[in-house]
Every structure is written in structure tokens, then in C-alpha cells.
Specification:
Layout lengths: L1 H22 L5 H21 L5 H23 L6 H20 L2
Pfam families: Multi_Drug_Res
Keywords: Cell membrane, Membrane, Transmembrane, Transmembrane helix, Transport
Family: Belongs to the drug/metabolite transporter (DMT) superfamily. Small multidrug resistance (SMR) (TC 2.A.7.1) family. Gdx/SugE subfamily.
Amino acid sequence: MNWLFLVLAGLLEVGWAVGLKYTEGFTKPVPSVLTAVSMAGSVYLLSLALRDIPLGTAYGIWVGIGAVGAAIAGMVLFKEPASTLRIVSIVLVVAGIVGLKLSST
């Protein structure tokens, strides 16, 4: 169950990272509230996952999911460049996430 909490926390991190773009400096109320709720939910779920998952593993995976998700969201939603180097870098982060998961079983 803690791994599910960790994955959900990472997905909420993607949500709040994307949400920050829509808040326009927290000047738009609805996106600002949704972003703040996503932030709080992400940290709460991370704290639940940390009950049984080592800190370095959990935090690395949480950040990795957020980084990969935000990079992909940026390319899809905001037409950010999808260069070969960027894609290879995302794959390397995913490999790191998998490596952390495999090393903690």
C-alpha cells in the first residue's frame, strides 16, 4: 500500500507543478487552490509512504515521478521542445526510478 501512496504522491506532484503554470503567480484563485491542494496531498501521501519505504528511495522516486511527469506535461501541454537529448534524459530518470525501486525490495 505504501508504494501506491508513493506513486499517487508523485502524480500529485506532477499536478501541482503543472498547476503552478496556470496560477500565474498565484493570481488566479481556482488554479491556485487546486495547486495548493495538490501540494498538500502530495506531501501527505509521501509522509504515509515513508512509514515503510526508506527516505532516500521514497524521496528519489517521488521527485523522479514529478520530474518525468512535469517534463512530459510541458512537452504535451505547453509545446516545449521534445529533443532527442530531452527524451533520453527522461528515460535515464525513469531508469533511476526503477533502480531505486528494485534496490529497496
